[in-house]
Write a structure and sequence with these properties.
The protein is of the alpha/beta class. 40% of the residues lie in helices and 17% in strands. The protein has two domains: 9-52 and 193-294, 3-Layer(aba) Sandwich (Rossmann fold); 74-189 and 301-361, 3-Layer(aba) Sandwich (Rossmann fold), CATH 3.40.50.2300. Keywords: Signal.
Length: 385
């Protein structure tokens, strides 16, 4: 098996070659075809097997703990986009962490932890780096949930590393982030390559698809190419095309899929665009299976993402229902809070606590490799009607 650095480089180079000559698709045209719904969603492991239910003893970790911790004034940070196009993502994460902090503090009169939010603004590396410097310059802050996006991690990671500040990202998926040699960065979901490998294994072994059309979007090239490479000959080159917001080539994409008549289609883009595309394909006569995938359950896929009491508390406190990244923020914030309660009250100590941590959360089991990747990442595969 190739090392991660070599594998990622190979995937990226092949992706560039593949994308250069692909057709494109947009959201306009064939508007009479109704968008299709998601009819099933399952969590799978790296081998493509459907993940079993967690054992009954796997109770999600509770930041309230036993309520006996005593500590000096300390804080944790959340570094996410709170303005701009990714503000909704940042708000989900921040609110999840805040809920965990509030639950902790209500149980620990002698250990009150403050949450300090920092806005990375998502679109600006300079803003992200500035936020990172503000985080590490605060001597009371021991760890951070975030950054949210891979670009922000690239801009902030070396600053956190130099300060020994542990950073738990709930949503950054670029595979190369854990190849930088940082000891302080830990990822809270499967990276793009791991997602692609898991999806391809699922399509091949669990679904039993002998021939697959792999449709990609440029921003997910790494994951899409991992799907294509893992499928090997099962990825039909005649209908493996790039989807983009352009009026050119739209009919060509739909026609190529229909003409190819694959056993399944995998689309590496957002669900709204997938739903429209499925409707267009169904209207053109394609009725085989159609899938998307992501590193967390999709919106509405988990009716109670934080458990009854916590979901109700979140909804009341923030005047909106929790989303998938709310649960991720809650889980990762809980890890940092449990570390502080255990006595890890310096940055190096909290980093080592995270490195040795194993515990259940609302989304998954959290345990990390030496490189900062999850030992058992899960991927959610969505099938459309």
């Amino acid at each position: 098996m190739r090392g991660r650095a070599g594998r990622t480089a190979a995937l990226t180079s092949v992706a560039l070659l593949t994308l250069a000559g692909c057709a494109v698709l947009d959201s306009d045209g064939r508007s009479d075809d109704a968008a299709a719904p998601v009819v099933d969603s399952v969590a799978i492991d790296r081998n493509g097997d459907v993940a079993g239910a967690p054992p009954p003893e796997s109770v999600p970790a509770d930041p309230a703990g036993d309520g006996t911790a005593v500590c000096p004034p300390l804080s944790i940070a959340v570094a996410v986009p709170l303005a701009g196009p990714d503000a909704a993502l940042g708000r989900e994460i921040r609110n999840g962490v805040q809920l965990a902090v509030d639950r902790h503090n209500s149980a620990h009169g002698g250990c009150q932890i403050q949450l300090k939010p920092f806005d990375t603004e998502a679109v600006s590396d300079d803003a992200a780096a500035s936020a990172a410097r503000q985080v590490v310059d605060d001597a009371f802050t021991l760890g951070v949930v975030g950054p949210a996006r891979s670009g922000a991690v690239s801009a902030m990671g070396s600053i956190f590393e130099a300060a020994g500040m542990v950073a738990l990202s709930p949503s950054a998926t670029a595979a190369a982030l854990t190849e930088r040699g940082w000891r302080t960065f830990f990822r809270g979901l499967a990276d793009d390559v791991a997602q692609g490998v898991a999806v391809a294994n699922y399509l091949r072994s669990t679904v039993g698809a002998g021939r697959v059309c792999v449709l990609g979007v440029a921003e997910d090239a790494e994951r899409i190419q991992a799907v294509r490479e893992t499928l090997g000959p099962a990825a039909d080159p005649g209908c493996s095309v790039t989807v983009a917001d352009s009026p050119e080539g739209r009919s060509d994409v739909v026609d190529r899929v229909v003409d190819s008549a694959p056993d399944a289609v995998f689309f590496g883009g957002d669900e709204s665009r997938a739903a429209t595309l499925v409707g267009q394909l169904r209207g053109a006569g394609y009725d085989a299976k159609f899938f998307t995938a992501q590193g967390v359950p999709g919106p509405g896929r988990t009716a109670d993402p934080l458990g009854g009491d916590l979901t109700a508390a979140y909804t009341e406190q923030f005047d909106e229902a929790p989303g998938p990244f709310s649960a991720a923020g809650y889980d990762l914030g809980t890890v940092l809070l449990l570390g502080i309660d255990s006595g890890a009250r310096t940055r190096p100590a909290l980093q080592e606590f995270v490195r040795a941590y194993r515990g259940s959360g609302w989304q998954r089991t959290y345990q990390w490799t030496d490189e900062g990747e999850l030992v058992d990442p899960l991927v959610w595969v969505n099938e459309f009607g």
